[in-house]
Amino acid sequence: MINLTLRQLRYFDALARHGHFGRAAEACSISQPALSMQIKELEETLGGLLLERSARQVALTRFGEELAQRVRDILRSVDELGDFARASRDRFAGRLRIGMIPTIAPYLLPKITKNLTRMHPELDIRVRETMTPRLIQELVEGRLDTAIVALPVSEPSLTEVALFDEKFLLVRPGADEGTPVPSREMMREMRLLLLEEGHCFRDQALSFCNMQSAPPREMLDANSLSTLVQMVSAGIGVTLIPEMAVPVETRSASVSLARFRDPQPSRTIGMVWRKTNPLARQLLQISEVVCLSAGKARPRQAARSQRA
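Structure tokens predicted for Hydrogen peroxide-inducible genes activator:
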């Protein structure tokens, strides 16, 4: 009989994800020598090498790669056992891991955290901010409980719950205040400033302007809406931002705002989680808190599960 411990499996999972002993040890809050010892014991127990070690990084062997996927499945199942126990309680308590995309987190996170803490004081809220593909991967692997993203994500193993729709506004230099609002066709001829590739908001802006890729006159890929707005303030070009970002991003920028004619560009904000998550009922309650925090009403047909 092979004697493995959950601790060893979690350490190996961290090492497989980070590819570096130092970063993995930091993520596990242990010393690097202690991590190395646990991994060596795991290799001895299993009777095979899991890693190819070098001075700067580690790479998984073929055996290690196959084991890494099985370990993720095991750890996800263990975590869901804990969630199952939590779901049976009357109160919502313990760890809650929420992911958010960068075009939502700075504007909604403070209100969501404040409301959740007030309504569920025993929750330990942990937030992860990154782009949608990474959030979906971490959800599927069981490293997040839920994520707040722009829908659809169309991942068969996830439940999607639509929360509210949000319009996009045109941001122009302050001198353009009162001038006619350009059509989407005219936008293709303007210097449109966009977020860098990987942000779903970039793709949504390009879709509205009927562009398959960045316009030829584009001269900036930014990592944040704040940078885009400040560049518009400097007269570099124009950009689009979601409504929720307006109060924060335009308060110190000399820009003008305008709404497009109908149909206006927009996005649907929603929550996603694994279909197997035992906390589905509690996560639906949290989705109501998100709507409350955004000051929005939920669509009538809010929840839908993506079919495989």
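The chain is about 40% helix and 20% strand.
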